[in-house]
Specification:
The protein has 187 residues and is an alpha+beta fold. It is 20% helix and 30% strand. The strands form 2 sheets. The protein has a 7-stranded mixed β-sheet with strand order 1-2-3-4-10-5-8, with no helix packed on it. A 3-stranded antiparallel β-sheet has the order 7-6-9, with no helix packed on it. It starts with a strand and ends with a strand.
Length: 187
């Protein structure tokens, strides 16, 4: 798997629009310090943060993963070619302990963004996120706990959940062991 760096793309979008860190922070609700850390690749944003930044810059999440290539009508992403984002950090600077792998990285004018998400361990941080769109999650392995607004939903391998992403949400490992899931996010 290839470790993929998205900070430069975010910085490029901001500078192309002649925006300051403060202007982006004000519009997205994130701190200027966090935006700077993301741009300088000191931290990688979770999917919800990346989604909010993509919406703000009016690009698809895949924009942060794509390489400069011509658009295609289909795409095959081999397991060793997946773009991996790890060391995900929350806006308060605490680690989340999960990674996600983009399963589609080229600009195909798609309406959904597929990822394999790995939750490495049980986290005490229960910060929840929300963004526009919808999500479909399929637990591939492990025991998960889905925080959805004020509910806690236990999910096991093979279980799936579909929800409006504007609901506050967070996926946790239920027993402290690794959880792997397929996440499909619409914009």
């Amino acid at each position: 798997m290839v470790e993929y760096n998205i900070g430069a793309k975010i910085k490029e979008l901001r500078k192309a629009r002649k925006l300051t860190l403060q202007a982006v922070a004000t519009e997205t609700g994130f701190s200027p310090a966090l935006i700077s850390q993301i741009e300088n690749n000191n931290v990688s944003p979770p999917i919800a943060t990346l989604s909010k930044l993509a919406r703000f810059f009016d690009v698809k999440i895949s924009h942060f993963f794509e390489e400069e290539e011509d658009a295609r009508c289909y795409e095959v992403v081999r397991v060793d070619d997946r773009r991996v984002v790890s060391r995900v950090i929350s806006k308060d600077g605490k680690g989340h302990g999960y990674t996600y792998e983009a399963l589609s990285v080229h600009n195909l004018n798609k309406k959904m963004e597929p990822f394999v998400v790995t939750v490495a361990e049980r986290s005490d941080d229960e910060t929840m996120y929300s963004h526009d769109g919808e999500e479909f999650l399929l637990i591939l392995s492990g025991k998960a706990e889905m925080l959805l607004n004020d509910e806690r939903i236990d999910l096991d391998a093979g279980d799936a959940i579909y929800f409006d992403s504007s609901m506050r949400h967070r996926m946790l490992s239920r027993d402290g062991n690794e959880v792997q899931l397929l996440a499909i996010v619409t914009r």
